[in-house]
Amino acid sequence: MFLARLTIRWRITLGSLLIAALFFGVAALAFRSQVATILASTTETLLKHDAAPVRTEILDGAQKIDEPGKAQLVSVIDPTGTVRRSTLPDDLAARLPELLRLHGEPKNFTTKKDSYLVLAQTVETTGGPWRIVTARDLDASVLLLDRITDALVIGALVLVVGFGAASWLLTGAALRPVNRMRRQASELSRSSTALPLPVGPARDELSALATTLNEFIDQQRMTAARERRLVSDASHELRSPIAVLKAQLELAHLSSGDAWALEAEISAAEHSVARIAAIAADLLELSEVESMPTTASSSWSELSMELGSAVDRARLVGALPGTRVEFAIEPRGHDEDGLVRYPVTVGRFGRILDNLAGNSIAAMPEGGGLRLSLLQEPDRLTLRVVDSGPGLPESFLPIAFDRFSRPDPARANSTGGSGLGLAIVKAIVDDAQGTVALANRAEGGLEAVISIPELSEESGVLPE
Questions:
Q1: Where exactly are the transmembrane stretches of this chain (predicted)?
Q2: Domains by residue range for the chain, with CATH
Q3: Angle, to 10 degrees, between the axis of helix 421-431 and the axis of helix 259-291?
Q4: Distance between CA atoms of 12 and 408, rounded to whole angstroms?
Q5: How far apart are the first and last CA of the chain?
Q6: Distance CA 155, CA 110 (A)
Q7: CB crowding 146-163: b at 16 or more within 10 Å, else e
Q8: Threshold 0.85, pTM exceeds
């Protein structure tokens, strides 16, 4: 909890200090241990070297043992037990019988004043065994090791503090672009500018963060612009039917004494209310599609069945006498079990079919024809809706999927459409990562082509 309340800079610095303390502490201990081992090995070697000249003299039969070198602590005892030469300090010489029992490897020996490393050796001669005792004062080694330890502690502390300071400075330098980016994002949120966050020349994490934030900002701007446009379009589109409804209600009040006129005005008002309700329902559906991407999918068989249902609905609703509504379904062949799925729900796919078929039938003359074809291709499905109607003005095709867009009266105003049907189709297809296109046919009529990709296992979209 304490670390969670700290800033990133403090957390990184404290973590770096802890790691540095552990690293330099272990390194200092390892170095001290290595020095201690070297000192002990050196002392043992010196003990053996101190005894070597004496051993040579004894083996050569010398009658007199030369004086040992300066600082060499040596005691030589002949076979009779007589001390022939000794440079041992008094407190160590007084305990010579104990030292002679330390035969073998060097041993630590402590007196009241000092500590020594002692080595007792035996030299066999024809006259009997000689004993050589060599000693080395350990105080110098201990003092040297203590000074090295002090130097290591001070050096480790300096390195840890320097490492912490470097971490503090480097972390501040690394976070400075983030703070600058945060201030720029704050300024962008308070202003109406459309400038993006600057992306640095280096391809590092900060550049990736700036790119991601710019994409997020663009999406938020597009969402806000879409919402503003939706509110503006809705208010503009609803203004006329609401004004008409108000006038019809006023006329109904004036016609209160005439039953036939009153009924006519109420019927007209009901028509206006139905139109307003249809616009509101379409706006709600469009907003839902754009703001709530689907995580469901449908199989080929489910979509094929929905196509048949949509054809039945098209034949029953609004078709003029003699109008033909046909359909064709062409499966891929090896998907009999319906394992291939597509990122669109049956309900939304039905709305695509109803909107396209409804638009075509509403604009189609008596005796016209409508054909819906569903084709399962290797990696996608393709829906074609072809009618024999008057088609659309070429100037209208680029804006046909905009909200509340309508062509000339020959195709929209006479039907009382809200101008949202194609916008809903486009939103559903975009949500499914597909494409949709409208084109006038050379032989007459309009063709709509929708392509929806097959759902891959890596997409992460779950089946219904």
A1: 151-175
A2: 3-143 (3.30.450), 196-292 (1.10.287), 296-459 (3.30.565.10)
A3: 20
A4: 66
A5: 42
A6: 32
A7: eebbeebeeebeebbeeb
A8: no
